[in-house]
Amino acid sequence: MDNAAEITPQAPTQAMIQACDVNVYYGDDHAIRNVNLDIAPKTVTALIGPSGCGKSTFLRCINRMNDTIASCRITGTITLDGQDIYDKSIDVVQLRARVGMVFQKPNPFPKSIYDNVAYGPRIHGLARNHTELDQIVFTSLQKSGLWDEVKDRLDTPGTSLSGGQQQRLCIARTIAVNPEVILMDEPCSALDPIATAVIEELVAELKERFAIVFVTHSMQQAARISQKTAFFYLGEIIEFGDTTQIFTNPRVEKTKDYITGRYG
Amino acid sequence: MIDMKQGTIWETKEMQARLRRRYRKERIFKSVGLGGLLVGLLALAILVASVLDTGLSGFRETRLKIDIYMNPEIIGNVKNLHGDAWTKQVRDVDYGALIRNSLRTKFPDAKSRHDIFGLLKLVSSDARVEIMNRLIKDRNIIGKTIPINLLSSSIVDMYEKGQILRSSDASTRKISNKQLAWLDKLQAEGRVTSQFNWTFLTSGDSREPELAGILGAAVGSFLTLLVTLAIAFPIGVATAIYLEEFAPKNKWTDLIEININNLAAVPSIIFGLLGLAIFLNIFNIPRSSPLVGGLTLSLMTLPTLIIASRAAIRAVPPSIRDAAISMGASPVQTQLHHVLPLSMPGILTGTILGMAQALGETAPLLMIGMVAFIVDIPKGVLDAAAVLPVQIFLWADSPERGFMEKTSAAIIVLLVFLVLMNGLAIWMRHKFERRW
Partner of A35 for a Cys bridge, out of A3, A22, B99, B305, CB 3.0 to 4.6 A? Predict the structure, then answer.
């Protein structure tokens, strides 16, 4: 028993999310093939790989965002805290409150900054009164490092902020419902290097409380922020392990080729 | 020609010619567009000018100041009557005789029956009511001779507005030489005046052009549009949301979509036949009522509204839906909190354009009996009513010359309605528009 735990570094008891033989089809297109992946709590797990390799598709399976695509079909199981999230008894709305998501392009609602952050708590009934709601908004904006920049203009539209601020507003909006996992789909790809650095710092802080799954195209970014890295190629996971190991000593030739820039 | 080492030489003759051709093409393209715009504007200007030219005089009326002797013998002994007896007596007075006697005093040369008849034709049949109203207001005028500004008849009105010419052949002219002479006399004494025609804006239809008003048709149009809006808007928006956001994409929804697009192109009179068959014959809704008109027009407007609403919903960026869904908003919450508010400007614009189309629709209403001659102003959606375009159609069809300017005046009222509605659409669009 002890031996087995040593051999598999991701012991089942530690994993928060377990994907087991996940296959995703878009119509006839087989987008994800037999993916097995364990995601640990309080860890940043980076998903890297060339465009179209299925990173985002896999990410969107974790909070069932793929349900909105009619042609999408999923087999295999994904469990969150031991519960199969594709089980009929699971309420999708609740699942998405537990598994938050930040998108590639900042997409704040065309409402005030306050309403953006308060939206989740409002629809899920997380605050009993205005004071509590104010508190949630304050905490979330503070955790996302946005409070000092927007505290005097909470009633201005969220869309009036700069790109980097908008993305942090989206993060604040996500953590306002107190999720267990945050999925981030290339959240810095539309941002300048300074805004990117701010988000990266934020991710490092957030991982103290949340499990974070982070899709990125930048090797350096994955190396900087993640503890675990999964390399996707053509819908398969080629290699999954500690980030330091993947970047310094990849076990598979393809991984090595990719991170050294041979293709992708 | 192409020499990659030397780079492209732009100064050659061929290149210059190419450049000139490109400029010429752009000039032609621009001038064709501008020409089209100008032709359109010219057509609009001609339309508006001709309608205003004939129609504006419809908003004026001619009045003749006649000294009326309130002959106590004709009026009878009413001084001491009160309540119902007074009302009855006042109603029964022969006002025609008052007018006849007064006019004969003024123009003693009118002796024959024919002349007197012509004399009476100078004032409107409504003049009697005007005198009655004066009497009701003040019974002390009995026995006195008082000047009253009586509404002129349509022929006098037409003559004063220059629509009947003195120079035209007297045998076919609507106004006789004698009538003209009397009129000249009144004119010389400054008794002929022109004033704003409140009757036109405050009364219903009439057989007499000078008494015909647009209010009945305007109220009818308003009530009809209200019914149309109340039915078409919720059904149309709900259908659009369902088709766009919830319906599975399969053969059946494709079929429905094709049918909706086809319905938008179906001639409107077909909807009139449908309304006749269903609403009148099966449901027995009162004919020519705004309710049945509104129901029929809402059938006609629905396809337009659904198509416009679907386009507006589709224009909401998917990223907003993603954001809402990823926050754990249910599908209904996503629609009500995000998609609908963002698509509202587009939906409202489509709705108003659909309403404007319904406002101008005539053909289907003819099928459901809204073409009747209705004098009363409708008080509810079940009363018989006319609508503006049908009123225009009816007046345009009337033989009396006086209705010609009324027709154009009604067109002006309809156009004002349309401009107001489109203005409202622009205002709403501006008000509800949010950027993202």
Answer: A22
Is residue A218 less than 8 Å (CB to CB) from chain B? no
DSSP element (H, E) containing A108: none
Give the domain extent around B145: 61-195
Decide if A120 and B435 are in contact by the 8 Å CB cutoff. no
Question: Residue A69 has what pLDDT?
Answer: 84
Of B249, B320, B333, the CB nearest to A107: B320
**B53-91 per-position pLDDT tens digit:** 989 998 999 999 999 999 888 888 777 777 788 888 888
Domains in chain A, CATH or no CATH each: 2-259 (3.40.50.300)
Inter-chain CB proximity B321 and A170 less than 8 Å:
no
Q: Nearest 5°: phi and psi at A112?
A: -70, 165
The confidence score (pLDDT) of residue A10 equals 45
One domain for residues B287 and B368: yes
- Taking only the tens place, the pLDDT of each residue in B292-337 is 999 999 999 999 999 999 999 999 999 999 999 999 899 899 999 9
pLDDT bracket for residue B262 (50, 70, 90)? very high
What is the number of domains present in chain B?
2
Buried b (16+ CB within 10 A) or exposed e, B180-206: bebbeebeeeebbeeeebebbeebbbb
Give how far A43 is from chain B: nearest CA, Å: 21
User: Can you tell me whether residue A84 is helix, strand or coil?
Assistant: strand
Are B110 and B116 within 8 A, CB to CB? yes
What is this model's ipTM?
0.86
- Report yes or no on B94 lying in a domain: yes
Q: Are B157 and B223 within one domain?
A: no
For B322, which residue in chain A has the nearest alpha carbon? A65
pLDDT-flagged residues of chain A (< 50): 1-13
State the greatest distance between any 2 C-alpha atoms of chain B, in Å, as a whole number.
Answer: 118
- Which of the pair, B435 or B185, is modelled with greater confidence? B185
Measure B308 CA to nearest chain A CA, in Å. Answer: 22
Q: Is A63 on the interface with B (CB under 8 A)?
A: yes
Residues of B with CB under 8 A from a CB of A: 248-249, 317, 319-330, 333, 337-338, 342, 434-436
Q: Which residues of B touch A70 (CB under 8 A)?
A: 248-249
| B338–A109 C-beta distance less than 8 A | yes
* Closest-CA distance of chain B to residue A247, Å: 32
Q: For an interface test with B, which of A109, A122, A169, A184 has the most B Cβ atoms less than 10 Å from its Cβ?
A: A109
- Chain A nearest CA to B330, separation (Å): 6
Nearest to A190 by CA among A105, A107, A102: A105
> Looking at the complex, does the CB of residue A250 fall below 8 Å from at least one CB of chain B?
no
- Choose the weakest-confidence range: A3-17, A126-140, B166-180, B203-217: A3-17
Mean pLDDT score of chain B, rounded to an integer? 90
For B364-415, the pLDDT digits (tens) are 999 888 888 888 888 988 988 999 999 999 999 988 888 999 999 999 999 9
How do beta strands A83-84 and A72-80 pair? antiparallel
Best mutation target, B327, B339, B342, to test chain A (most A CBs within 10 A): B327
Q: Which residues of A touch B323 (CB under 8 A)?
A: 103, 107-109, 170, 173
